[in-house]
Amino acid sequence: MSAPLSTFGVEYRAGTLCMEGVSLAQIAAQFDTPVFVYSRAGISNAFSHLDQAVKAARGTRPYTICFAVKANSNLAVLNILAKLGAGFDIVSGGELARVLKAGGSASKVVFSGLGKTSAEMSFALKAGIKCFNIESEAELERLDQVAQQLGLRAPVSLRVNPNVDAKTHPYISTGLKNNKFGVAFDRARDVYRRAANMAGIQVAGVDCHIGSQLTDAAPLVEAMQKIVGLADDLARDGIQVHHICPGGGVGITYQDEEQIRLDAYAAALQSALGDRPVELLLEPGRAIVGNAGVLLTRVEYVKPGEAKSFLVVDAAMNDLIRPALYQAHHRITEVAEPAGNDRATYDVVGPVCESADVLGYSRELSAKQGDLLAVLSAGAYGFVMSSNYNTRPRSAEVMVDASTAKLVRARETIEELFAGEQAIDEA
Ligand SMILES: *Cc1c(COP(=O)(O)O)cnc(C)c1O
User: Fold this and answer.
1) Which atom of ligand 1 is nearest to the CA of 172?
2) For domain 41-289, is the CATH number 3.55.40.20?
């Protein structure tokens, strides 16, 4: 038998793949394919598990879990998390607008990213966000100016680069010296001293983020120990930070990866913090939404080949780019449970004109034309990374809430795709 399906609430019932008892075949029939389907309970449970682990470790000491919006920024997802008390980690003015629209509180927003524009800084300052995570001295200088022009002081953390190897895929590893992210650890103390003397800046915290899809907590804890040490150095310099944040990066099970034990992870972070009078911030993205979503797709053609056979499906790299971009593995399973044992080996490919447009290599599947497949663990970095390449409208998004499926983003229409374009000559 194959491994259990890791996406929340997804299992076969009476021969049909369901999410929390709601038939995914029904959802495909109602909303068409390709379609992303998320589970409200999956999102809430993942958030609550982490929240409870941190609460148990922290006791009465303060903490905030800031969901990394870039992992899944649908308003319905943000609204669910806002109601659970989440803060948000954003990387653009657009994401701040989404958070506010979804009912999130600016006072729990931290603004990450290494290329913030003046307009984005100004928007976030006026909204009153909790903190800017600053990644360079040039960015710090600009924020100082923008804040002074507004007569405000910008709360700031430096995102420092602790030079810890996250041992994850190089494209999602961010904490090493040769990386574009963060302020070099050895420079940080000097930069903090400068920041502390800027009229438009208020030093608020220390931040890092070493990478994504980590399956071992050790590098996260090592990074935490380093930034706690930095906070102690700053205190000796007379700079007292209000919060310390080791970022996000907790991985999920796509295939058979071990998952970080959240209680042990939270306890290790707490033991690094001890009784220092600071707030703990976390910035998880994938761990909250990754296994709360699937991508449903239909087989357009079965294409036997000389060397291998293909299932040509109606979802493509423009819908889910992770396999093409990161060589990521997503489990793919039949929506109608195969009765016999007529599986064959296929590459599951999309219709986009790129050889990299593969959702899964060498999969044992039983499928014929018109059958539905579910690409699992697609709740994080799925729809948000989708594009209109090949003039393909982006998928619909649906949320399963208790026993009902609700549309949370309409499928794009072809007309919408070129609504802003025009010819320079008359047609
Ligand atoms: C992407 C990102 C996160 C979230 O990463 P996950 O691996 O999804 O938890 C957190 N913090 C920062 C600064 C990020 O860029």
Assistant:
1) 7
2) no
CA of 284 relative to ligand 1 center, distance in Å: 6
Cα 245 to ligand 1 centroid, rounded to whole Å: 12
Q: Which residues line ligand 1 (CB under 6 A)?
A: 68, 70-71, 89, 112, 209, 212, 247-250, 283-287
pLDDT per residue as tens digits for the range 75-128: 999 999 999 999 999 999 999 999 999 999 999 999 999 999 999 999 999 999
Classify residue 32 as left (phi > 0), alpha (psi -120 to 50) or beta: left
Is 18 a known active-site residue?
no
Give distance in angstroms: CA of 421 to centre of ligand 1. 34
Q: How many Cα neighbours within 13 Å face the side chain of 157? A: 33
The pTM assigned to this predicted structure is: 0.96
Of 112, 116, 243, the one to substitute when testing ligand 1's pocket (max ligand atoms within 8 A of C-beta) is 112
Interval 263-288: pLDDT, tens: 999 999 999 999 999 999 999 999 99
Write a three-state SS string for 300-357. Answer: EEEECCCCCEEEEECCCCCCCCHHHHHCCCCCEEECECCCCCCCEEEEEECCCCCCCC
Kindly list the domain boundaries of the chain, sorted by start residue. 10-39+290-417, 41-289
The fold of 10-39+290-417 is: Lyase, Ornithine Decarboxylase; Chain A, domain 1 (2.40.37)
